[in-house]
Inverse folding.
C-alpha cells in the first residue's frame, strides 16, 4: 500500500487531552463495524473519557491507539479503487487544518477508504474565514485525488452549507471566483452531512500536522485561471442601478458620458462613503448579508440559512460598501462586459434616489 495514502492516520499524533482523544475515537467509531472486538480494543481509551478519571497515557493506551491506527489503514477499511464505481470525498476544516478522505461504497453500500489526506493550515490561511477554509479543503481534495475523479462523476460530503454553493456561484470574485471557475471542469454533487455524521473527516482536521514552512497561499493555485473583474471597464456608457433589497431594485436608463454634461453633485443624492458604510450595516435588508459574509453567521432555521447563503453569493463587499452583482443582457453593453454593480441603498435613504 502506498504510504502516502495512509500517512494522515498512520502518523496521527498521540492525543494530549480528552478533546483530542474524543475526536480520534469519533473517527474510529465511524468505521467500527469493520473492527472486530472494537469495544474491547478501545476500552482503555474510553476510560480516559470518564469525568473523574485522570488523563494518564500509559503503554496500555498506547497499544490500543496503535492497534486502532493499524485497523484504519488496512483491509477491510482500506480498499483498492474500483474505477467502475463512483468515488466520494469527505472533507472538513478546522481553525488549524484541512482534511479529506477519498472513498467508495462496496456492494453492500458500506463506505470503504481509498486514501486519507490532510495538512495543517499555513499562517495566512489560518486568518481566512471558515467558509474559505472549507472551500480550500474541497479544492485541495480534488487536486490531490485528481487521478481518481478527473473524468468521473463523484460526490462530496461536507458539514458546511457554504461549500454546497461554491460550484454554483456566478458572481464570486477573488479567491472564491478562481475556485468556482476551477470547479467547473468537474462533475460532482455536494451533500450536506451534519458534523456528527462526518466524523471520519472531522478527526483528521483536528489533529496536529507538521509545519511545512510555507506562509503563503497554496502554491498549486498558481495554475488556476484568473477571472476578470466584474466591474466593466468602459468609458462611453454609464448604467446606474440602485439595489433596495433582495427583491427590489430601480434602474436609471443608460446615458452617454460627456465632459460638458451637467451632473448633480453625488453628495447631494447619497451619503458619504463612511455614512453609507454605517447605514448599510444597520439596514435590516442588508445586515444579514454583512453578518454572513464578514462573520459567517446564518439564521438558526435551516431553510432561511440556505436561502441567505444562496443569495449572499450575488453580493460583493467592495472597499467596505455592499453591491449586488447582476447579469446584464442588454445589447447596448460592449462585448465582454456582462455584469453590472448595483449599489445597495439603505432603507433610510431610498427616498433620495427615487
Amino acid at each position: 500500500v502506498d504510504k502516502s495514502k495512509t500517512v494522515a492516520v498512520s502518523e496521527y499524533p498521540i492525543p494530549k487531552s480528552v478533546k483530542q482523544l474524543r475526536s480520534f475515537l469519533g473517527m474510529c467509531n465511524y468505521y467500527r463495524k469493520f473492527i472486530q472486538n472494537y469495544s474491547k480494543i478501545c476500552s482503555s481509551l474510553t476510560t480516559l473519557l470518564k469525568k473523574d478519571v485522570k488523563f494518564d497515557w500509559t503503554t496500555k493506551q498506547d497499544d490500543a491507539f496503535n492497534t486502532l491506527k493499524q485497523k484504519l489503514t488496512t483491509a477491510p477499511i482500506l480498499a483498492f479503487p474500483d474505477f467502475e464505481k463512483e468515488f466520494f470525498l469527505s472533507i472538513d476544516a478546522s481553525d488549524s487544518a484541512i482534511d479529506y478522505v477519498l472513498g467508495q461504497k462496496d456492494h453492500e453500500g458500506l463506505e470503504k477508504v481509498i486514501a486519507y489526506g490532510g495538512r495543517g493550515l499555513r499562517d495566512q490561511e489560518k486568518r481566512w474565514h471558515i467558509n474559505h477554509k472549507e472551500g480550500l479543503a474541497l479544492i485541495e481534495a480534488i487536486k490531490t485525488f485528481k487521478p481518481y475523479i478527473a473524468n468521473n462523476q463523484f460526490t462530496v460530503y461536507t458539514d458546511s452549507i457554504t461549500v454546497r454553493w461554491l460550484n454554483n456561484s456566478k458572481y464570486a470574485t477573488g479567491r472564491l471566483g478562481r475556485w468556482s471557475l476551477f470547479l467547473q471542469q468537474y462533475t460532482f454533487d455536494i451533500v450536506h452531512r451534519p458534523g456528527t455524521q462526518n466524523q471520519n473527516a472531522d478527526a483528521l482536521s483536528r489533529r496536529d500536522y507538521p509545519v511545512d514552512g510555507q506562509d503563503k497561499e497554496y502554491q498549486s493555485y498558481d495554475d488556476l485561471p484568473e477571472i476578470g473583474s466584474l466591474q466593466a471597464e468602459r468609458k462611453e456608457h454609464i448604467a446606474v442601478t440602485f439595489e433596495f433589497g433582495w427583491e427590489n431594485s430601480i434602474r436609471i436608463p443608460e446615458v452617454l458620458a460627456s465632459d460638458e454634461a451637467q451632473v448633480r453633485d453625488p453628495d447631494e443624492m447619497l451619503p458619504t462613503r463612511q455614512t453609507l458604510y454605517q447605514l448599510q450595516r444597520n439596514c435590516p435588508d442588508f445586515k444579514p448579508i454583512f453578518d454572513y459574509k464578514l462573520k459567517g453567521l446564518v439564521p438558526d432555521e435551516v431553510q432561511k440559512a440556505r436561502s441567505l447563503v444562496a443569495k449572499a453569493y450575488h453580493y460583493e463587499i467592495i472597499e467596505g460598501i455592499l453591491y449586488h452583482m447582476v447579469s446584464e443582457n442588454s445589447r447596448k453593453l460592449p462585448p465582454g462586459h456582462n455584469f453590472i454593480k448595483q449599489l445597495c441603498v439603505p432603507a433610510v435613504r431610498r427616498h433620495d434616489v427615487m
In short: The chain has two domains: 3-223, 237-352.
